[in-house]
Amino acid sequence: MKIGIPKEQDDPRIALVPSVIEKIRKQLGVEVRVERDAGRKAYVTNEALEAAGAKVTTRDEVLQCDLIISYHPLPDEEMERLPKSTWLISMFKPYFDKTITEKLRKLGLKAFSMDMIPRTTRAQSMDVLSSMASLAGYQATLLAATHLPRYFPMMITAAGSIKPATVVVLGAGVAGLQAIATARRLGAVVEAFDTRSAAKEEVLSLGAKFIEIEGAKEDTSAGGYAVEQDEDFLRRQREEVQRRAAKADVLITTAQVRGRKAPLLVPKETVEKMRPGSVIVDLAASTGGNCELTQDKKTIVHNGVTIIGDSELAAQKPMDASILFANNVFNFLKLIIKDGQLHLDLEDDIVASALFVKEEEAAQG
Length: 365
What we know:
By secondary structure, the protein is an alpha/beta fold.
């Protein structure tokens, strides 16, 4: 069996790094082929890949492999040319892209989506969403600190004292908690909100204040995502956010509902009540944004407030992001490859969740 690693089209990450390639070869008995310069932007050299035992070759040869692994799905025109026996592993996001499942079925391709792996204790080592969210939360805080025209920490100088910046984090999942921790390390005063009551203890443990709004719906089966709230709660939430935002220097928003548009937490009127020079970093930009004015993959200024919309901030740390993604993938490969060949246990909840094609189709693969 051969695994192919193509170069990402518009992303600096590489799906497998040398240390993981070596483990795949030795522990799983599988050959690995990597497109030349696939790791260049993540500072992974062709020489390092070859030293780990990978064959560095052309994209055409990589796309002839039995199993192709990439962070982003291949372009449609390339998937259409793949042999029907090809298996794919990527971040297909079938909850958001409603067309991808049928598209792959028509092409006769079998695919695993790493974002479909359940967010359970057993699957933690394969959880790409958490790995990337942690990096995104860290990077969001650094971006906010860079754009904010003042210090994060309190400074006492001969010329006078500077008050610490106030950071409000909306959504205390993995990204939010990392944003909180990073902002606290930089010396900011941090407040955080989440609809999940279980997040309160974690927020407090990081030295932040937890913003409580009563009446939130919770669902422990939501896989770590927030759940959709009724309009009365959303109204009260927006009012409280507006009150806090008016005093905040930075807003970092991370709230997403799986398979739905991101909840609107920061309407235009809230932005216009914020102080000039304030910063909003919206990590839900790709699913509509938590801020009404967010533009995905763009930084804009409205009424003196800088709004950064980016759901792929992890890509700005491509070295560590590649290592984490590669480790997540390797831990998943150990479930589906035995003696150098694909061997699927469809009674395994992790395998069954990641495989988003019909079970009988997978069996034929």
